[in-house]
Amino acid sequence: MAIRAFLTGGTGFIGANVARSLLNAGYEVRALVRPQSSWENLQGLEVEIVRGDLNDPELHRSLKGCRVLFHVAAHYSLWQADRAVLHQSNVLGTRNILAAARKARIERTVYTSSVAAIGVGEGGKVVDETYQSPPEKLVGYYKKSKYFAEQEALNAARLGQDVVIVNPSTPIGPWDIKPTPTGDIILRFLRRQMPAYVNTGLNFVDVRDVAQGHLLALEKGKTRDRYILGNQNLTLKALLDKLARITGLPAPRTTVPICLPLAVAWIDECLLAPLGKTPSVPLDGVRMSQHPMYYDAAKAVGELGLPQSEIDVALKDATNWFEQFVLHR
């Protein structure tokens, strides 16, 4: 009989790709979907949908009959006003679903953390799983919430649960429905709404490699270990140049001094938001861009066999997906 996997976050970017990888590998998939969420990313797939919430005290009932858990769901926000929501969803929600997994006798859990929980190296230094920024130095409540959620996973593993942790970097590819900040950059590039850029850098990876990395972590990962699911370190300028070659559209040539978006973001969030204006630029997002976020995925490549697909292919498939499902709707 096929192994039944319980999946959270299946309606999101990474989760939708994990769902497809699981189905392609012969798993049965039961996906937890919040009542208010759209499950457009799962339409047409042979996935059992259960409506519910990560903080449901009876969540273990939904997990009954499943052998493995992929906890991908997380609330993503860089707005400082969302601190309580981030803690409730990411930290307490992770604690609750791991407790539910114990009650339901789930055999193994793959928990989706993030490189955000690891932090960044000083001066753009490339770091791996052995590195950890002190939590008080992590920029923004989102990063802190992912750090403390990862601690919940580690605590569960110390108490005897079989939990493997994966830390995706910056995924690119299809099904970026919200979109993510990187997807938003691609969209603004396609709409010719990006006249300038900031000097920063990120580690990019094909989202389908990230999804495959989840399955590989289930099969080969070590309990309590974490694995960076990443690929190529690139400056934002290099990424935009790749987009220009793929699309034929011009890349922005002008850099923006960081003081300008910092000022705009501070005014937005600290002065105008309390007056009822919806802020346009998250202050924590700008603060993050001050430091290149570079990572080494050698452990996942060596121990799990994480694929390292060309970033150009991921970018091309992402632009095609946005053209089909977003721009021309």
UniProtKB/TrEMBL annotation:
Residues in NAD-dependent epimerase/dehydratase domain copies: 6-230
SUPFAM superfamilies xref list: NAD(P)-binding Rossmann-fold domains (SSF51735)
Lineage: superkingdom: Bacteria
Pfam entry (one): Epimerase
One annotated GO molecular function: aldehyde dehydrogenase (NAD+) activity
Classification via InterPro entries: Epimerase_deHydtase, Hopanoid-assoc_sugar_epimerase, NAD(P)-bd_dom_sf, NAD(P)-dependent_oxidoreduct
Gene Ontology cellular-component terms listed: cytoplasm
Protein name in the entry: NAD-dependent epimerase/dehydratase family protein
Organism, as annotated: Lusitaniella coriacea LEGE 07157
